Description:
By secondary structure, the chain is of the alpha/beta class.
Amino acid sequence: MSLTTRAAVVESGGAPFTLSDVVLDEPGPHEAVVRMVATGLCHTDLGVAGGGLPFPLPGVLGHEGAGVVEAVGPAVTGVAPGDHVVLSFTSCGDCRNCRGGHPAYCATWLPLNLIGGRRADGTSTISRDGEPLGGHFFGQSSFAERALVDERSLVKVDPDVPLESIAPLGCGVQTGVGAVWNVLKPVTGSTVVVLGAGAVGLSAVMAAALTPATTIVAVDKVGERLSMARELGATHTVNAGESDLVEALAEITGGQGADGIVETTGSVAVLRQGVDALAARGTLVVVGAPPFGTEVALDVNGLLGGKQVVGLTLGDAETQTFIPALVRLVKEGRLPLHRLISTYPFADIDQAVRDMGAGKAIKPVLTF
């Protein structure tokens, strides 16, 4: 049967979030109803709400959910009612990349997660007054008291870990951590540089601190963020508003350049500086996403020393193994994610948006 719930609806591009009663469709064979306990707020949500991506509006966003399973479709086998779950992106499960353990590069990733607003078969998961709304955002649309979630978005987690402390694992945190662990893979003595000390960047700093890298550099223009980066494991910081980035990194690395760089800002100017600051055979991971169609100019001869520039989606993580490992690290205090989180009641979502935009909150988490 369908279910009425309260959701934060974006009516049109640039409009605020408005609390409204919506109707969830009956769970399909591979879907579950999840009672939300917490959900993170991400810059991707704000980009879509602002009209920057062609997601169908009015619609319900939210893609860092955490909650408790209430009901499951007849073909769901991985979770049962009562299970605690973290919600992440969805994928088809059948394409070459899904079968190869890289679901973040699913052949149908964009329509299933970011711009489709519907199930793969074109049907709607959410409606209001009999009219379909954009939903199925990352297979979840978790800005609601209850969410209809695709089975491949569900990750069962340890029920002893508070869900509000791990909701951001579904997107931002696994992106930053995965950039370091799954792409850079630092070896003993490596230098890792993180450009941008927001939620993704600070997650990358924490991840680097759990590797054999011996030099971890955080770069930002906000002094408070740089101080936190130091507390979370950075050995050096660079205030990009006061220093030339390439020169500062050359000084820190003794002129060798950085072995690995994570670019989280979405600025092509910063990306170019990062590539210039790489060591021979160094790798820069592009995480920050500027508007579609944005291009960057690179010195081709500068790349011939074996430099690599790698794009990344969601940490290239296989969520069913990656997220439970992160939950364990949070539980044991080795991934101090709580340092990034500010909690807000769900009804205060617009205040959370304002605080995030003003830099007052690194990772807002809405609680229900």
